[in-house]
# Entry
Amino acid sequence: MDDRSFSRVRLVGTACVAAAEWAFLAWQHAHGGVSSHHFLDRADMPAISNGWGALVLPGMAWFLLGRVQRRVASHGGASTRGAAVGFLGALCFGVLLSVFFTRGDDQVTGTMFESLFLVALVVPIYRAEYLLGFVLGMGYTFGGVLPGVVSSVLAPVLWVIHRYLRTGLLFLGRRLVGRASRA
# Structure
């Protein structure tokens, strides 16, 4: 995919996210008002209105799609399919996490969230397409801001895990295999 085509994807993707979020907020407004969500699902914590999603989600889509565009362009376009698969996988993960949270399955939700740290050892889930899919997948249930905050905090942690912890574990594994083969 050339840079011009990807710019069109970026524009259309951002417009779709904006239209979907604004339609969702209009629907919420017409059906009892725009809801708010408390940090950590605790009433004693501050609540953030879903209305902020009208600004946050399109802005995040524009920014993250731009990051994907730059990375794909720097790799000669070879990773376009991988970026799409990563986005769709993270979108499904975010939707499933939201469904289990809504059903009250705290054990499944906790396990899914904790599994992100293990997945980061194998897959670079800190990348922009994964973050965008994760945030959009959880946007209906949690609004646009809370998933954005969570992903912004998680991304550097997942990057460190994938970049350094993974490298260290692979190094140790090679050393142990080398010693076992010499013995």
